[in-house]
Amino acid sequence: MNKTYTTYKHLAIFQGKPLFSEKLHVGRPNIGSKSLLFERLQDILERRWLTNDGPYVREMESEISRLIGVKHCIAVNNATIGLEIAARSLDLKGEVIVPSFTFIATAHALQWLGIKPIFCDVYPKTHNIDPRKVESLISEKTTGIVGVHLWGRPCEIDALTEIAHKHNLKLLFDAAHAFGCSFKGRMLGNFGDVEVYSFHATKFLNSFEGGAIVTNDDRIAEKARALINFGYDSSDNIAFAGTNGKMSEISAAMGLTGLASLNEFISVNSLNHQTYVEELADVPGVNVIRYNEDERNNYQYIILEIDEEKCGLTRDNLMRILQNENVLARRYFHPGCHRAEPYASDEFYNNLYLPETERLSASVLALPNGTAVSEVEIKVICQIIRVSVTYAKEIINFLS
Ligand code: T4K
User: Fold this and answer.
1) I need a labelling partner for 233 at 20 to 30 A (CA). Which of 208, 340, 383, 398 fits?
2) Are residues 249 and 267 in the same domain?
3) Which positions ≥6 away from 272 have C-beta within 8 Å?
4) Nearest CA to ligand 1 atom 47
5) Are residues 271 and 216 in the same domain?
6) What is the pLDDT confidence band of residue 160, given thresholds at 50, 70 and 90?
7) How many CA atoms lie within 13 A of 362 on its CB side?
8) Residues with Cβ within 6 A of ligand 1?
9) What pLDDT is stored for residue 8 in this prediction?
10) pLDDT in tens, 223-244
């Protein structure tokens, strides 16, 4: 890739030839030191201890507890299972209030347990569950609230905590995006009754697949630890019906390798974010979401909000233009959960209209970030966006 665009006629939607010869993905994993990883893999094989509370899993759990300042960390094989186990540890049932603007796993984890997700709208500024709307959704069947720290930006934790206390509800945070982020100087992972991280390949910290349940509550931790291991308690008795949520040693080896490079990941992500913000600053209708610089952030998500009226292009048009250039921008998260199955055809949700969720799920676009994308590539991506917006009319004429 050694050229850039100055006019719309150069765009691949006109020319057919993408500017980038290799695909640029959203969610390209951060790897860290390959040699450290290979050493650990060697250890695992020599030790012949592959899973079930192995030494690397324990090391990863204690390293995370230390970094986050949280009492208990229970590594799991993915965050969806983590959410299910967290919900079981809290004895959630009946109805649980959850934002609709999130990855579908947040809702499905509840649904899978026979709990009815009650979809709440989000606050336009933060994209997170709107506490002002939560209270009106509480019924006799409500047992809990799930907040999602979307893009790693904290929910309105104080307001949600107050509502949960007032109505005697459990508070669970889906912190899938929020490893390494803080709220009022304290690391996310310490709030509500329990929080759940994701360490999926696409996340800031990855363990191939994986996640962690974190809590400062001894009882919840004890229950969660038994639940990930078929229900076996610490005295080797089968206390209740559990599942298999255990993280394997190979995943922990990857997680520990990433943990050793966290500062590098943060500084790369932060510089990338800054480049996007600067390069797109004067492009009308294209707004890069910001992070609160008084807090710790992982800057993992580059999220654009596209204002069609100002930029002349819909989010989907812009995505199509970028994808033609091999920039695989993603519609995170489209549609809102309440518009996805099984909820969309469940008559319980028939009349549900969540204006902010509808707006955001039609206007938000995620762009590549992380250690796999270079500053030059980011500048070119921004140039493609700039040219597309400048020549929006010509492009729309061509597309229609
Ligand atoms: N809560 C929230 C708020 C979440 O966002 C998620 C997951 C969860 C809960 C559940 O966490 P886990 O159970 O997964 O631990 C991906 C991920 O699979 C999912 O973990 C993530 N959120 C979600 C936002 O994104 P897809 O359907 O977008 O995945 P896919 O395969 O299309 O990959 C996404 C992009 O990443 C592509 O551009 C390709 C790239 N990629 C992906 C993988 C797996 C790579 O470059 N390398 C890879 O190894 O769901």
Assistant:
1) 208
2) no
3) 299, 302, 369, 370, 373, 375, 378
4) 28
5) no
6) very high
7) 11
8) 25-29, 78-80, 102-103, 105-106, 148, 174, 176-177, 198, 200-202, 211, 328, 332
9) 81
10) 999 999 999 998 899 999 999 9
